[in-house]
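user: can you give me the structure for this one chain? tokens are fine.
assistant: on it. calling the predictor now.
[tool input]
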Amino acid sequence: MFKGSIVALVTPFKGDKVDQAAYKKLIEWQIKEGTNGIVPCGTTGESPTLSEEEQEQTIELCVQTVGKRIPVIAGTGSNSTREAVNMTKHAAKVGADACLVVTPYYNKPTKKGIYLHYKAISESVNIPIILYNISGRTGRNIDPELMAKLAADFKNIVGVKEASGSLDQMIRIKELCPKDFFLTSGDDALTLPILAIGGIGVISVAANIVPRDVVAVINAFHQGDLKKAGQINRKLIALVRALFIETNPIPVKKACELMGLCHGALRLPMCDMEEANLAKLKEALKDYGLLKK
């Protein structure tokens, strides 16, 4: 249900509010382009700077707009367990198909604390929970042994978005976790290698601007056309590098603006790109054929 290219959707702003009309247009475009699923209010969607009310409204808007055409995996993580539980319960109530829950950040909980955090969340709802492991931004790694224990103890903890950057760790996850526990890439640059070790897809930043190509890489791989998958992936990699030239989601939001998909406004502490990096991003978009030269 959650395989393929799932877009970690940006959140467009208009003034000091979420631009709901633009958000609905982005969703419709993603579905038209063949995206396999949508994550509203993930960290690419600037969830840390959304109020609780905004996050709830945006998740509900996404669920309503999608209308069960593709899965909606709501971003409901927090470094406060109580907030994460409340947000996850709300997402389940409004009809999200699953929730993506990032490891608590800044607090640096112990392994026991991480276990108890996900225990509280998983026991609060019946819908699937997907772990989001990105130690570079949270300061804590969910190691394969802990992940296996969570997957074994809580049947609705069904998979992980892995952005540790360690293929060795991901292989260990596949070895230790239940067979039906899935691995999906949290890093566009590693999607193809992760597919090769048994991953089922990607929760993608790049899919915000090239959804069809991210889908194509995964489909070609699963069809056994490794040559085609490699060709598309090599083209994507240069673009992906430009999308992470500054902290995500700054470049991808600017790319969306340059392509006319939505306004690129950010909320502090996210801010406009440095001019030199903006020039590099524009060049990458032109080289890819997304902007005129």
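assistant: here you go. The chain has one domain: 4-225. The two ends are 39 Å apart (CA to CA).
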